[in-house]
Write a structure and sequence with these properties.
Largest sheet: 8 strands, mixed, barrel
Helix content: 40-55%
Strand content: 15-25%
Number of strands: 9
Distance between the termini: 55 Å
Radius of gyration: 19 Å
Structural class: alpha/beta
Order of helices and strands: HHHEEEHHHEHHEHHEHEHHEHEH
Number of helices: 15
Amino acid sequence: YHAPQIFDRREYQIRMRLDEILKRGISQGRIRLGFDPIWSVKEDRAVFAEVSAAIDDEEFGLIDEETLEVAAGAGGSSTIFEENVLEQVFSHVGTGGMAHDGFSYVVLKLSTSLAMQKNFTDLIWNLRSKYGVHPEHICFAFRETVYNAMGENYEENINKLSLQGYSLALGGYGRGYTDITHLSQLPVSTIILDEVLVNEAESEKAGTLLRGTIRMLKETDLSVVAPGVFDEKTYNMLIGMGCDLIQGQFINDRMIKKEEEN
């Protein structure tokens, strides 16, 4: 097979020229941060937001985070880009951008390549000092499947972040093999469910599994976030299951409507 037959032509070109695109994005200041709100049913507001990063490229237009991740996974080097995103997030929080947006803290996906480096927590400490960011304003999220596959440096850095005062979230829960005993040993305070669990919950069996998962996690005093919610039916279903932190397009639309009414 020819590669363009497997991949969309644009995505194929991005994959092949990723390093060039990343360097251009950094040098031209075209990295764009996005903040996906997470709604608290209990507080009736968006209490925090998950950070995403895109590049507004002069040739390819807006390249979203998912496309960049796929391209990087296919062999591109993105460490410098990830360091730049990390700095922009700390700068945004430290200069009052997060407070202006009305969030208590932001959730930042933990870069696998950076988190495997021995000096990673030194980098975090330097950014904290440079921008005057208190650890309570940033939560680092790492995926369950990634954590299970990583080595000693990754696990050590996770623990160091916790000791420095940062909260930690386990993302994509339900796709990996983390049992409740192992989960209780991780320094995490928040669980972000895998979107597949949420999207398939309309079936009786999947719904029962999701309800049991949410109940089990909340009984261990963990906050549970349900992502990928696109409609009111799913939103109400999750509330009925005891999940009160919800993320997705339905929440985005709801906030826009609320702003327009005000």
